Amino acid sequence: MQRRQIIQWGAASLAAPAILAHAQSFPSKPIKLIIAFPAGGPTDITMRALADNASKILGQPVIVENKPGAGGTLPAQALQTSPADGYTVAQIPLGVFRLPYTTKINWDPVKDISYVLNVTGYAFGLVVPADSPLKTWTHFVAWAKANPGKLSYGSTGTMTSPHLTMELIAQQLGLELLHVPYKGSADLMQSILGGQIMAAADSTGFAPQVEAGKLRVLNTWGAERLAKFPDAPTLKELGLDLVQNSPFGIGAPKGTPDAVVKRLHDAFKQAMEQDSYRTALSRYDMVPMYMGTAAYLKFAQDTFAREKALVEKLGLAKPQ
Q1: CA–CA separation, 183 and 191 (whole Å)
Q2: Distance, CA of 15 to CA of 1 (rounded, Å)
Q3: Which uninterrupted H or E stretch holds 299?
Q4: Mean pLDDT in the chain?
Q5: Residue 316: its pLDDT value, please?
């Protein structure tokens, strides 16, 4: 046992200088930032602004790679097979914390990601085409009750926050809705504008289409009305005891050296504070939502427990 410990200590002492040297020279090449939704949507646009700012601070390009699908969980899954050197980081949407309850996976969303920082969060709502006969939430509910299973709504993917929130609403009101999942806001907006679905539950990626007079907001899901849509009631105002916001941030592979995580944290925090990022967020009624490394890890732990209760309440948990 003593011999084994001596060998382990020796290996650790040899590795320590290499890790320190890596951290001191980091980054010496481009960094890949994997995001969970397609090009052209609010996540893509805001994260590219953040990446551009971070590139200037780090002195190396931060290259955005879009990896949509699977309810926004593919970037986190990609971290499980990426080197723990800080050169691959990923967006961590809320859906990542639901994954073990709905899918059989061999990794832990809390323990197997190095949490760097939280950067912002989505504001959500429900929209219909501007010429829809469903002029208000009252019309929406009445039509759904009169036509069970026929009122189609799209979301940014199965098990995403828009999907689960709509299922909670349907459960509370006794509605049977037809859910149509998409890979992200860009695809979802094309579909509702093309008349393929009757409504869309989404982050405020729909804002430009509302401002152009093509869509109408029936409700929003925060604790208070959104400044961009002051006439749209919240779910709580409509008698539903629901508030949904969805913070997201950046994670790195498990085992990424603390000094590298700190370098990434400091650079992205500084990038968050620049006007170009705030302007990109404001397009979608989003704001910077900072959590440091320790606070973001605590958020991950708490959210992991809370999402289990939500998935079970909706009867969507799969047998393990």
Answers
A1: 11
A2: 21
A3: helix 293-313
A4: 92
A5: 82
